[in-house]
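Q: Could you fold this chain for me?
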Amino acid sequence: MRVLIIDDSQATRDTVRHHLECIGCSVVAEAENTLQALNLFGTVSPSLVFLDAAVPQTGGIGALALFRIMRSQAPATAILVSSALAFPEVRKSFLNEGALEYLSKPLTSQSFEVMCKRIAMLRDEAPVHSAGTVLSAAG
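A: Sure. Below is the predicted structure, expressed as structure tokens.
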């Protein structure tokens, strides 16, 4: 699974990258704001985007809307959102806008367990090439 991590915190990106790589994901790019992420999205063709809900320039909902538009070119791209805002209505708004999952910060071992389960579900649903490589992930 090819992952694009978008978070303005280098420490968070490092932590997320570590956990994703431990479960066999390939972090193909990182961005600290929406503009960087949008420029990378088409280039790296991620199957998963890990998005900070407070990403600079557009905020998470704005970025999610932009990624939904861009997903028309890559509809199999799933988006996981993380945020320090643990309010149920915020979580619901992100899920209604197409996020696969909404993880509350600070990210804990429980958060990463949820993330791993969601990624495993994506892998299970993904069409597999005859050589055994995942071609895309459902999202």
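A (continued): The first helix runs from residue 10 to 22.
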